[in-house]
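Worked example

This section walks through a single chain of length 171. The input is the sequence exactly as stored; nothing has been trimmed or padded.
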Amino acid sequence: VYMNIVRQVSPSASVTLIQPNGGQSFGEGDTISITWSTTNYSGTVSLSLSRTGIGGSFEPVTNGTTNDGQYSWVASGNATTQARVKIVLDGAPSFNDVSDSDFTIFDRDISLFTPVALDSFIVGSGVDIQWTSVNITGNVRIELKRSPSSPVWELLAGSAPNNGYFGWTAT
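Given that input, the structure is written out below as tokens.
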């Protein structure tokens, strides 16, 4: 009697992070498309972000998301020039990938110079609203809160040019 025993070995799972893979710059509030590919794996994946490079700690972006090769994340949190994304196969955590090099998440900022809190104006007088903005493109929305204790914001301009100046007549 002759017996032949064959051991079948399942191919190993693998994951490759495609984007962001280093060198990109994203502003706070930008939607970042995180993309990846997997082989021999159909379970969920988890994504995390380091703001201190490859050796830094990673904070969760999402856990247990569908392994469909894409996740949209809105950039938030502290600015950094050392961001890296890490993807982990939830069902096989030893299989993971990290961005090959650092990418940047930068702040977007707007600062109001005039008027300042508790300024008062005579109805009908002209008011100069002045600001500076950094890394903000497109128009701005200008709103007024008439009292610090009021929860209500009044719309002055829904879409004003972001040129640092808006003239308003006090009402």
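What to look for: The first strand starts at residue 14 and ends at 19.
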